[in-house]
Request: fold
Amino acid sequence: MEPILIEGTPKTPTIKFDASSGVFEIKGRSIPENSVDFYKPLIDWLDSYKEDPNDKTIVNIRLEYFNTSSSKCILDVFKKLESIYKAKNEVEVNWYYEEDDEDMLEAGEDYESIIRVPFKMIEIVE
Amino acid sequence: MSFNVESYFSGLSDGNQILYYKGNIDSDLITRVLDMVEEKLISFNESPKLRKRVYNVLVESLQNLYHHAGAVPAGFEDQTSERFGILSINKIHDGYRIVTGNFIGAEETDELEKRIARINNSSNEEIIELYKHILNHQCISVKGGGGLGLVDIARKTGNKLGYVFNSYDADTYFFCLDILVNNNK
Reply:
């Protein structure tokens, strides 16, 4: 499977989804007006990946800001990962948040309470 | 005489207005406003926490205008804006006051008012549960909004949403949302 590599912009995050390593990354700001357009290719890619996933998939989320329409799309990404996890594959989400950014920590905890995949909350200390 | 949009907003300024805009709300405008306000917040030496909250609330408020601003009524001074909106940001003693305004069809006001009332009558814990419920159970609307914007603003600020529906003509209201972002939470 070809990896997805998307450079970040002021409104959209950097995306690195690599099926060969099983390491996925979403990093930066996710505040586009039309989040569905941005995330649809990722969701489609995950649909293919989940047919033959790695034994272990590691997902690193390092978001500085995200808007509420992105929050629904990110949930859709996690739901794909959940189905991979339910099919007896190892999946781990690393949710990074900056020191004192309790809003971003709470956002990670929201997902952790909805999605049945192991989450690690990791504080970035400068 | 119909509601005067301009004089309403000029009455909001208490001398510390850091940004005022009226006109078309498109994607480029949103990017420019966010950049400008982010630079100002840094130059004012605001704490990272307050800076992030103001930025987040501004993103949601502007994108609410982008997704939900109604058609400009006939006779209004600006007939060219596809999505007409007004934004005012004032620095106040312990934070920022963000006020947005947009036209809305008279038939939509009841539903919006019910949604705001539900948010304003909820405790912080209930707002978190409401946010998670909408996040998990509601699809993105045809207008592109997630239905979460107002809930997110209330959650991030910890303050009640101020609002007023000003009657403009028989079919149209001018809706103003008045948000306080401070160190309340």
